[in-house]
Amino acid sequence: MRAAHRIAVLATISAVVVASAPGADGAGPAWFTSWAQSQDGHADAPVSGRSLRMITHLSQGGDAVRVRLQNTFGTGPLTIGHATAGLSTSGAEVSGTRDLTFAGKPSVTIPVGGDVWSDEIRLTTRPDTNLAVSMFVAGTATPGRHGAALRDNYLSAPGDHTADVSGGAFGTTVGSTYVVSAIDVHNTSLHGTVVPFGSSVVDGIGSTNCGPGCTQLGADRRWTDDLARRIVAEAPASAQLAVANAGVSGTTSAPSCPGMPPSVAGLDAGSRLDRDVLALHGVTSVIYYYGTNDLAYGCDAAAILSSYRAVFARLRAAGIAVYVTPSTPRPGYNDAANLARHEIGLFVSRWSSCGGTCSGVVDFDVVLKDPLKPNIILPAFDNGDGIHANAVGQQALADFVSLPMLAGSARR
Questions:
Q1: Which residues, 6 or more positions from 105, have their beta carbon under 8 angstroms from its beta carbon?
Q2: Where does a domain end: 184, 219, 243?
Q3: One domain, residues 298 and 323
Q4: DSSP designation for 19
Q5: For 297-322, what is each residue's pLDDT tens digit?
Q6: Which helix (H) or strand (E) holds 131?
Q7: Domain limit, last residue, from 184, 209, 225
Q8: How far is Cα of residue 199 from the mean position of the Cα atoms in its chain?
Q9: Residues 241 and 309 grouped into a single domain
Q10: Residues 6 or more apart from 193 whose CB is under 8 A from it?
Q11: Fewer CB atoms < 10 Å away: N or C end of the chain?
Q12: Are the beta carbons of 306 and 271 closer than 8 angstroms?
């Protein structure tokens, strides 16, 4: 998508009237976003009269679910003729399906730049549940998508196969997540949703590298997934939280940097904030992980810190705690980038609260950097590019996050 078109699409979002979207409070205190993948572009090819089956992975379960469908970066209106949700078992197979409705109707048309939440369906889920969302695309559309699903999703042969429990009709695999961008669960025992918000390190690049001979694609081994499992296993009942990933690879905190590629224009933190964080439900805290791309694209510390302050202020005004990590290693940093990285680190660490502008610090830089070569990742954690952590490093990041810190922002 051209940068000008992407920015124009973003500008239309606030004007779109969307059917059956819950209010900002989630239409009740017991709804929490349990899974998310932020849209960052559109499908490579049109989809015509076929069914999509997208596999989502819940951080927490509940007694009901509702689904967010998005067409933020689609090239035209998207009509979903029929949609279902069911528990995923293996591949494209599901153990059963429940029809989704939208303001009581079985179909919905989502305009370019728009989104829609389904009505709730009664469906019991648990932490680590894989939930399959199936959608029949009526007509022809090039839908919005999240590019790095890091698992197999599925496209069917022609026809409405959304109610199929067998995966037989879903013979084509895709590496992106089309249309579905968030899952809410209804759970009166939860106390909030944590949203890791950032670029490729949040998106999970490197997490499928789990060692020689590993074939665990789709094993949900991002540090955000590992953090969710830690919360379930270790946090007290008064601090059980969902985790919803809002990472988009290649993006920046600052709205513009000299070397920024056109493909990520309009996907900076401030532009994404309403759609990818504030529109989710039950959000009590954000883990803010931005800066490495800003530095690589030539932004200076002043531009980066200006964007930090602006985003932090909006989050705190919404009553959301903000925990920030300093910029992490990258082999390509030049002297100017290293000086800016140092200035950012000082800002984030000041008073352990970004000089009073954030709620706390999560120092992932300390976890990842090689103490002998601080511009690269510790070899045991390196995915191979010196930037992204492998599965072992992902777990180390998750283990470093203070659960009592997150509990401090939980709803009581």
A1: none
A2: 184
A3: yes
A4: T
A5: 999 999 999 999 999 999 999 999 99
A6: strand 130-137
A7: 184
A8: 10
A9: yes
A10: 32, 33, 34, 241, 242, 243, 244, 280, 281, 282, 283, 284
A11: C
A12: no
